[in-house]
Specification:
single chain, alpha/beta, Rossmann fold, 2 domains, 12 helices, globular
Amino acid sequence: MSTAKTAHGRGRRLRGAAAVLLGAAFLTACGASSGELVTSSDVIRIGVAHELSGWAAGYGTDSLRGIELAVEQVNAAGGVRGKQIELITHDTLSDPAKAMTMTTRLMMQERVVAVIGPTTSVSAEATKAVAGIHEVPLIFGSATQDSLTDNGSGTRPYVFRTCFSSSSQASAMATYARRNLGATNAAVFVDDRLTYTRELTASFRDAFVAAGGAVVAEEPFTPGATDYGELLSRLQGKQYEVIYLPGYPDEAGQIIRRAREQGISQPILGADAYESPALGNAAGALDNVHYTTHFTALDTANAQVQPFLDAYRTKYQAEPSSFSAQGYDTLNVVVRAIRRAEEVSGVLVGAAMADLGDFAGVTGSFGMPASHDPAKSVVVVSLRDGAVSGVERISA
């Protein structure tokens, strides 16, 4: 999958927040509820607002593949409540403002009963307020940013996720660094312009220190730099056993490459955004790199994994990524909520989502707590010489 990111794409990511403010005024003016009973036609519409082009297209495309496989299976088995699922998909162009526009269109014009939202936290952030305005559940399959489900005074009633949160995966990596790698001192790099990376860094630091470690350096970096040598030079004279570098794959890959060129051999630790060929494209050979993610095909203890792998490989002639698996589970969670809802409407499907019960999927088993942030175990993947050398699951 391609996640090549242009300078234009990076600029869009930052400008998106300003555009969202303008869009919010439009939403207020057009804020009629879209969550009423949906009874017409012989289909049930589910929306998808995903990054299918632009810098995050790899994530969105993989997730959509998992979603479409799940829809195919559900429809082949007779659908849900006697109706077939109709998937309405819109490309967000990897742009937060476009993500908000497409999510709004799905809820207001397409009359969907739920929307599976963007795969990246930066675009998900732009859409979170829309769900409450239109009373249609918005579900994130891989956007981990902690604040997505929280409105500052409590849980957003129509916003859910089926993945772990940033704080969960960062805490799991801190546990892994201390327990598996024996690290006592860590250096941390952070793109402090993004809430996603700030949350990861803060949670890793807090958990690492709580486990008896020390953070000896915490350095900000700017995406798009032509040379990260100066950033790495700030670590000279400091004693550390690991580097925590959460971020998107282009920048992280470039920093990894420069670190290895400078003779820095310590383990480099990352987060779920590392799950992309773009990381290796930017970094070159990935050695002694470890990252947190949502799914592993090596999970032989989960009886649902092999049937999913077989179906995915047959349909796409490709291997699923963690984003594919999350998309697959997320669609099935939505279907479960539709089955359990009193009637098929955004409001009642949202209520059923909040009362999901125990769900067993290919990414693990979980429920939907009051926070709308499932407690899920975290997979840590280790890379040596560009190949997976180990996989470990860290309990929530």
